[in-house]
Design brief:
Length: about 250
């Protein structure tokens, strides 16, 4: 029996169990299971691995992507640089951490990006855990970026700084804040949307709802828009690949 699963805090409505159940069904995989393991604090991880000897792989979500690191035997270079782990592989008695959000974001972005976007710059809205994977990915793609935060800080733009000229210079705008995510579906990042045009790509990491207000406002201006669903699927598939490697 190979046991996979997800650790996090409020994970009752997570997409992963149904995604993997369908995958197991479609691929005719038997003797495998994917389960939710809600942890009220990260120190419970030790007890979990002691009581579940069949664990082969885990995904990690909010709020443990960074807090899990000291509990692992090793982590990949990528996860170390990003400072977050969303995938754990169990090899015998050892645990190794990876970050597959970088892969998911990169592949999803590459499929939708135009030449003008590559040559332009990006704005990353939010400075939380997900934003670190995004900045790592943009560095790899050689796309310059600036973070936008609610709080002023070194090297940061604030929402008050976002005027027409700034928006026109940044053709990729990535929402890594939870604004727009269910149940708060009417919220959206505070941007001068008037300055958005056809050449912009608005990438929302939020995937529920499938079309956020941020995306709708982009569509109204003729921009290309993308939600986080493909990224979510790609990161899950990459986790699966890592778990299957010998
Ligand atoms: N599609 C995918 O595969 C995927 C993968 C990972 C995450 N996500 C999604 O990405 C989002 C962010 O995840 P995360 O783990 O980075 O979350 P997080 O750490 O809780 O928040 C991200 C950042 O958003 C900003 N923010 C938070 N509340 C805000 C508000 N009310 N108004 C404006 N800005 C606000 C904050 O930055 P400042 O304080 O600097 O403003 C915060 O650090 C979530 O919706 C998550 O579901 C999707």
């Amino acid at each position: 029996m190979k046991l996979y699963g997800l650790i996090g805090k409020h994970i009752k409505h997570s997409f992963s169990p149904s995604y993997f159940a369908e995958k197991f069904r479609n691929e005719g995989l038997i003797d495998v299971d994917y389960r939710l393991f809600p942890l009220s604090r990260i120190s419970e991880f030790k007890k979990l691995i002691a009581t579940e000897p069949d664990l082969t792989g885990l995904n990690v979500t909010i709020p443990y992507k960074t807090l899990i690191i000291p509990f692992l035997d090793s982590i990949s270079e990528e996860a170390k640089t990003v400072g977050a782990v969303n995938t754990i592989k169990f090899t015998g008695t050892k645990t190794i951490g990876f970050n597959t959000d970088v892969f998911g974001f990169t592949e999803s972005l590459k499929a939708h990006i135009g030449k003008e976007n590559y040559l332009s710059k990006a704005l990353i809205l939010g400075t939380g855990g997900a934003s670190k994977a995004i900045s790592f990915a943009l560095n790899q793609l050689n796309i310059k970026y600036q973070h936008v935060s609610r709080n002023a800080g070194k090297g940061l733009l604030t929402y008050e700084n976002l005027n027409k000229s700034v928006i026109e210079k940044h053709l990729i705008i990535i929402n890594t804040s939870p604004l727009g995510m269910a149940p708060n579906i009417n919220s959206y990042p505070d941007l001068p949307y008037k300055a958005i045009g056809k050449q912009h790509l608005l990438f929302d990491l939020v995937y529920n709802p499938e079309r956020t207000v941020f995306m709708k406002k982009g569509i109204e201006k003729g921009a290309t828009v993308l939600n986080g669903l493909q990224m979510l699927h790609l990161q899950a598939e990459k986790s699966w690949e890592i778990w299957q490697e010998p």
